[in-house]
Amino acid sequence: MANAKVAPYGSWKSPITSDLIVQGSVGLGMVRADGADVYWSEMRPSEGGRTCIVRRTADGATRDMLPQPFNARTRVHEYGGGEFLVREGTIYFSNYSDQRLYRVAHGDHSAPEPLTPESNSELRYGDMTFDPARRRLISVREDHRAAGGHEPANTLVSLRLDAEANADGGEVLVSGYDFYSSPRVSADGAHLAWLCWNHPNMPWDGTELWRADLRADGGIANARLVAGGRDESIFQPEWSPSGSLYFVSDRSGWWNLYRAAGEDETLEALCEMEAEFGLPQWGLGMSTYGFASDTEIVCAYIVRGMSRLARLDTETKALQEIESPYRDIQYVQAAAGRAFFNAGAPQQSPSIVALDLATDKTETLRRANELKFDEGYLSIAQAIEFPTTGGQTAHAFYYPPRNRDFDAPAGERPPLLVKSHGGPTAMASTTLSLSIQYWTSRGIAVLDVNYGGSTGYGREYRLRLNDTWGITDVDDCANGARALAAEGLVDGARAVITGGSA
């Protein structure tokens, strides 16, 4: 670069400091739409890690909806998720300290009102859905009251909008499986769908999709299995506005969209392709698609580890990509003429984004942080493939060193930092990560490895890590470093590895 100083890799001075990385950042989570308003959860380190629910109205005004010390977080399945629901201007949420469900209306400035009994956190709730015909909630409930050293009982329960009516913690509607998620009531209140699974399966291994009729008194009848099993993972069942049941399944080897069509509920693929329309369900409340109308779905799908945004015509099955800079898209919500989601891009930190479906224009509503750096200090991820153990191919994102103020001496190769993400089924993202840019702007290359077991490359790739933890992942990280060194991109004698969780 013109006027750049020559200095060894690893010695470059950078404006991206550790103090700046933690300054003013928040964690953006689940997104929910209600009428013309959008709501999202926001974890705030400056408030002791409290998660607040934020509301933004159509005129652009934002407001915190939970007074301190209320903290919207559930411990169902320990990883939580699905911590709040919004319906007709009322928020229903799980409070972290006591795990009770509360409600608060957007026009109500009083304290949130509890809907479930005190239980010393032995009753936990998450992934709520609203039953409009009976004015009640249906929720996943995890009951630790009789565990006695054994696993708690997971069920689906009905909850009235009156705390006294829920004195027993809710009326059990569905039970018998080890785990439940994703209860969804059809728009007319006539049907309920849900996911369930048993040990030893994890939800990305095998789940079952069930549906049942809802009686006038709120009980269920005619429950039947729609799809899934020990070797088929189902994700995010949803009812269309007209009452058809849609879901994501990996029965083809990839998480693709399906629907149960007609009175005989014949399973029909909507868009079979080598792409992932689903995600590993580590938490509740996850979503990758939503209905803008009965014939239009707004969806996100992953190709080679990077998300794309699209609309799907449910009649013609035509998939049309929507151009956007975002490569990590989650918590998709849609309504007539618009969609919302949590997304990140290579040059933008995670953000809450609104999409105008008439123009395909996006608007950033909230960023995880407002820090901005000259692009000359930012390294953009490069998707790479490399050979690994057993004649297989593995995947990663490579970040070369970049700093507009410095060049390396001729012939020098940069040291390498290899990143191993938490496992077994997470995935590296290309969203702007200042913790990665911290290194690359100082002259250190980074390899963020999507080792065998990672999501984004189909079921077969996701299953590679089964029975080979500490072998496949380690081999892929080492082989990725070797591949870069063999190409002359890094100094193989100066390589370190870091990671977290598994």
* Shape type: globular
Number of strands: 35
Q: What class do helices, strands and sheet pairing give?
A: mainly beta
Question: What is the mean pLDDT?
Answer: 95
> Into which percent range does the helicity of residues fall?
under 10%
Q: For the report, how would you describe the main beta sheet?
A: 5 strands, mixed
Low-confidence stretches: none
As a whole number of angstroms, the C-alpha radius of gyration is: 24 Å
What fraction strand? 35-45%
Helical element count?
4
Distance between the termini: 40 Å
Strand order of the largest sheet: 30-31-34-33-35
Short descriptors:
globular; four-stranded antiparallel β-sheet; single chain; 35 strands; 502 residues; mainly beta
Account of the protein in words:
There is one protein chain. The chain has 502 residues and is mainly beta. It is 6% helix and 43% strand. The protein has 4 helices and 35 strands. It is globular, with a radius of gyration of 24 Å.
Quick structural overview:
The chain is mainly beta and 502 residues long. Helices cover 6% and strands 43% of the residues. It is globular, with a radius of gyration of 24 Å.
How are the secondary structure elements laid out?
Blueprint: E1 5-6, H1 18-22, E2 27-34, E3 37-44, E4 50-56, E5 62-64, E6 84-87, E7 90-94, E8 101-105, E9 113-114, E10 123-131, E11 136-143, E12 153-160, E13 171-174, E14 179-185, E15 191-197, E16 208-214, E17 220-228, E18 234-239, E19 245-249, E20 256-261, E21 266-269, E22 289-293, E23 296-303, E24 306-313, E25 319-322, E26 328-335, E27 338-345, E28 348-356, E29 361-367, E30 382-388, E31 392-399, E32 406-407, E33 416-420, H2 434-440, E34 445-450, H3 459-462, H4 472-486, E35 495-499
Parallel strand pairs: 1-32, 33-34, 33-35
Antiparallel strand pairs: 2-3, 3-4, 4-5, 6-7, 7-8, 8-9, 10-11, 11-12, 12-13, 14-15, 15-16, 16-17, 18-19, 19-20, 20-21, 22-23, 23-24, 24-25, 26-27, 27-28, 28-29, 30-31, 31-34
